[in-house]
Amino acid sequence: MRRRSPAAANAAPAPERVAARVGASARRLAARALVRRALDLHTVGLEHVPRHGPAILAARHYHHLYDAAAILASVPREVHVLVAVDWLGSGRRLACMRRLAAAARWPIVWRAGAGWRLNRDGYRSSLDLLHEGRLLLVFPEGYPTIDPRGGRQRAADGFLPFDPGFLVLAERAGRGVPVVPVGLWYAPAAGGGWTVWLRFGQPEVAVGWGPAGRRAHLRAVEAAVRDLSAPPT
Questions:
Q1: Quick one: pLDDT band at residue 103, thresholds 50, 70, 90?
Q2: Is 1 among the domain residues?
Q3: 193 neighbors 38 (Cβ within 8 angstroms)
Q4: How crowded is residue 45: how many other Cβ atoms within 10 Å of its Cβ?
Q5: For 156, which DSSP code?
Q6: Residue 233 within any structural domain of the chain
Q7: H or E, element range at 6
Q8: Across the chain, where does the E strand assignment appear?
């Protein structure tokens, strides 16, 4: 896949740019409608999300649907979500999701099994987005706590270990990409739905970490996400 520079992205034909903006606005409006219907959402720390340039949001993964919806509804710039598609199996559902993700420029990955080609393409697509100065949302745990496909064994605090792939992306993008930790805390709301606290923390910046530095930064981001996901006081 050919890398697109920010200049190349901005030089796209006018109808393509307009369609991209309309699509991003439609996804944000859909996310806000879902949030209004299902969540009592409280957002803190949006000032930590860069207004321009490449960045990665590394978020807790609690709910398979509402996590991304809350973030898309709250962040004022376009968010590209790294999405897993292995739970769709094969056939029409997978083909439909791949078309929708391609239209939104949401990279896709296969968390287990023989989907390595999708992972290669998802990695390249994620790098392209960062090179173009875009905002990428990742869920380093890989699997949500509330998962229609069934839960996984978790630590006592409810988290899964973080996969370091997002830090590899940040480092290889080569532009001092900030990684913003994002916490999510859920509780059932009295009238139905959920009360949700969405918190954005101070970013970590990827500059030539290497394996040892990457491990240290992974621990730092993971700890920050845990702290930001604590119950409100």
A1: very high
A2: no
A3: yes
A4: 16
A5: T
A6: no
A7: helix 6-10
A8: 39-44, 55-59, 79-81, 83-84, 108-109, 135-138, 178-188, 194-200, 204-205
What range does the domain containing 193 cover?
A: 6-228
Distance CA 5, CA 50 (A): 19
- Number of domains comprising the chain: 1
- What pTM value is reported for the model? 0.89
Beta strands in 45-173 (DSSP E): 55-59, 79-81, 83-84, 108-109, 135-138
pLDDT in tens, 45-72: 999 999 999 999 999 999 999 999 999 9
Number of residues written out for the chain = 233
Cα–Cα nearest to 134, from 40, 51, 11, 42 = 51
What amino acid is encoded at 216 in this protein?
A: A
- Both tokens of 97, joined, read 């999701």
Q: What's the rounded Cα separation, in Å, for the pair 233 and 230?
A: 9
Identify whether 222 is part of a domain: yes
Residues whose CB is less than 8 angstroms from the CB of residue 139 and which lie 6 or more positions away in sequence, other chains included: 59, 60, 61, 67, 82
Distance CA 198, CA 68 (A): 11
Q: Which CATH number does the domain housing residue 183 bear?
A: 3.40.1130.10
